[in-house]
């Protein structure tokens, strides 16, 4: 589906069912884009995908998170190498709140 409005908004979207008929794997997926001019005169263009992983949008006007600092990334990489634990968080006795 695609369209353009009288005030210059354009949109385009395609969608389909992923894994049709497969229980617990069937999902609706869609991808598309839209564009318009902001009240400040800035052209806005957005592309998106919506699927079993959620809605993900891209556009030059959207904020981007800063990069992870190297020391934090090293810590995350190290933690990812550790085996899983069966220990309860904070070593709390069962049934005891924070």
Automatic annotation (TrEMBL):
Q: Which GO terms describe its molecular function?
A: structural constituent of chitin-based larval cuticle
Q: Supply one GO CC term from the record.
A: chitin-based extracellular matrix
Is Iron there in the keyword field? no
**Lineage top rank: taxon:** Eukaryota
Q: State the UniProt keywords alphabetically.
A: Cuticle
InterPro entries, alphabetized: CHIT_BIND_RR_consensus, Cuticle_Struct_Prot, Insect_cuticle
Q: What is this protein called?
A: Uncharacterized protein
Organism of origin is Ladona fulva (Scarce chaser dragonfly)
């Amino acid at each position: 589906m695609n369209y353009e409005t009288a005030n210059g908004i354009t949109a385009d979207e395609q969608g389909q069912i992923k894994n049709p008929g497969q229980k617990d794997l069937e999902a609706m997926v869609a991808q598309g884009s839209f564009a318009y001019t902001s009240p400040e005169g800035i052209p806005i263009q957005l592309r998106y995908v919506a699927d079993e992983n959620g809605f993900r949008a891209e556009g030059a006007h959207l904020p981007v998170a800063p990069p992870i600092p190297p020391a934090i990334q090293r810590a995350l990489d190290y933690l990812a190498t550790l085996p899983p634990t069966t220990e309860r968080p904070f070593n709390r006795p069962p049934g005891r709140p924070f």
